[in-house]
Amino acid sequence: MARRYAILDVFTNRLLAGNPLAVVLDGEGLSDERMQAIAKEFNLSETVFVLPPENPAHSAKVRIFTPAYELPFAGHPTVGTAILLAHERFGAVRDEQDAVVVLEEKIGSVRCGVVLKDGAAGFAEFDVPRLSRPATPIGDVEAIAAALGLSPSEIGFENHRPSSFEAGVPFGFVPVANLDALSRVQLDMSVWKEAFGDHNHNDAYVYCRQTTAHDSAFSARMFAPSMGIAEDPATGAAAAAFAGVVEHFDGLTDGTHFVRIEQGFDMGRPSLIDLEIDMDNGKLHAVRIGGQAVILARGELYI
Description:
The protein is of the alpha+beta class. Helix content is about 20%, strand content about 40%. The chain has six helices and 17 strands. It has helices spanning about 30-40, 75-90, 140-150, 180-185, 190-195, 235-250; strands at about 1-10, 20-25, 45-50, 60-65, 70, 95-105, 110-115, 120-125, 135, 165, 170-175, 205-210, 220-225, 230, 255-265, 270-280, 285-300. It has an eight-stranded mixed beta barrel. A hairpin with a 4-residue loop joins strand 13 (about 220-225) and strand 14. The N and C termini lie close together (about 5 Å).
């Protein structure tokens, strides 16, 4: 049978930038093995399969696969799928159309607010389903520096030091001195497990305070070789976990804080991720991830 799919560029307002995403709109009836094989065929950071929701009040059930395995939650698939399903619901939009899309992911139900505008990229913001919390510790500075091809003196800035947090998917967070150090990262897989752990989610999110865009707060690169992702142009799940890093090291006051993260610039796929952090009584209260997406292509799979 023919199954419709779309390719979107996510966390960008223009084509051929941001993070590419494949969404198979007719995923019902596909086995786990078929979904994994299709994701490997697309060979993008993630491929989403849309299924009928278990709760009829929700928009869809979705399953998210990297080329190597399934994820319980991911950010750019959530943003891109929400925008695509809003387009499917409303078709061509005149002026502006708001929508609420609820996606059933393995981590739980994720509520997304979507804004479609005529002649503009769609925008989606979702409530992060699990607040950031510390994850399994990563290696020492010497091992981390060796794995990234940097000197130990380039690891860290201000009071920021390597840490690990997760909001559904764990990441090792590595602060580096500046954009120059960020641009020179070269992976050494011979010491990768020593630096980031011997497990499927030994992913490294490398960041600095220096930015390219004037309104960004951080620049970042994300490497996930165990997922089959040499480098990711934009990583919403990492941004969700990064809320814990910002809260821990920057000592956020109560209220709402807006943090824009730029990623993918070194890959020629510039991406902008909006991170909103609500603090209450000195603790994380709520986190939201937002970004734009554009539809690049549509087609059919004959599977």
